[in-house]
Design brief:
single chain, alpha+beta, PSTPO5379-like, PSTPO5379-like fold, 2 domains, 7 helices, 11 strands
């Protein structure tokens, strides 16, 4: 259920601590973004990593060093306080989840905003394709895979995917719809047997919450913006911050402006 009339109003709710949940279904029509924040000395290397892995890491915004604003993505965006949940990493390990970055922000940090598959869900719904985690008000299930990322310097690791259960006919329609949105992960990367991409138990996601797969449905997998968390782990960065999976930055950019026709 949408709780605000505009992305700016939604971000103000987040800043005030009045919205701390996952963001699927919030501000339909507007692009949501994943976060990867790190010291500037690693930024060029991470950007090369993102360019080698465009399905998982479609960068839609980058901050200046030490500046939490992303003016190209919206009015008064502040990466320190506009996301409903953050993950803190030290030496490549997640050590905490925090509600804001007021005390953690540093003058040497660079923030990357990466397109998110929650953005194309409005188009799926309009195209008659149901989205189970929106129906059930849960966080989209996400899984670590056995598919290696392209490596850039110290950044590598394995890819992460999100999953939405669908009938075969709905999956075909979903491919057609999401192919128009390469900046928010584009078309699925796998359909069907999860074991083929290294997922042992579809009912036990590594992030998010399990989604019911009903008779006649198959799991459909998209590249996921949680992939940078695996890259941060592989790089063993001394300090880094990401969004909490499913808890996104809601931008002022309309999904239609990122669509390819």
């Amino acid at each position: 259920m949408t709780v605000a009339s505009s992305p700016l109003a939604f971000r103000q709710l987040v800043r005030a601590g009045r919205f701390t949940a996952q963001t699927a279904g919030q501000c339909p029509g507007y692009t949501q973004g994943n976060l990867a924040i790190m010291p500037g000395e690693y930024a060029d290397e991470f950007l090369r990593f993102a360019r080698l892995n465009p399905k998982s890491c479609p960068v839609i915004g980058i901050t200046k060093v030490g500046d939490p604003a992303v003016p190209e993505l919206g009015e008064d965006i502040d990466l320190r306080i506009d996301v409903p949940g953050y993950c803190l990493f030290r030496d490549g390990e997640k050590v905490a989840e925090v509600p804001h970055l007021r005390e953690l922000w540093r003058d040497d940090l660079v923030g990357f905003v990466i397109g998110c598959s929650l953005s194309f869900e409005e188009a799926l719904l309009e195209g008659g394709v149901p989205v189970r985690h929106i129906e059930q008000n849960t966080t989209v299930p996400m899984y670590d895979t056995n598919r290696p990322n392209g490596t850039a310097g110290r950044f590598g690791g394995m890819g992460v995917v999100s999953m939405r259960p669908m009938t075969a006919a709905q999956a075909i329609r979903a491919v057609q719809i999401t192919s128009r949105f390469p900046s928010t992960h584009g078309a699925p990367v796998h359909l069907g047997d999860p074991a083929e991409i290294g997922i042992a138990d579809i009912d036990a996601p590594d992030y998010g919450e399990a989604a019911e797969i009903r008779p006649g449905e198959i799991p459909v997998f998209w590249a996921c913006g949680v992939t940078p968390q695996q890259a941060i782990r592989s790089a063993r960065l001394p300090f880094a911050i990401t969004h909490k999976p499913g808890h996104m930055l809601v931008t002022d950019v309309r999904n239609s402006h990122l669509a390819v026709f």
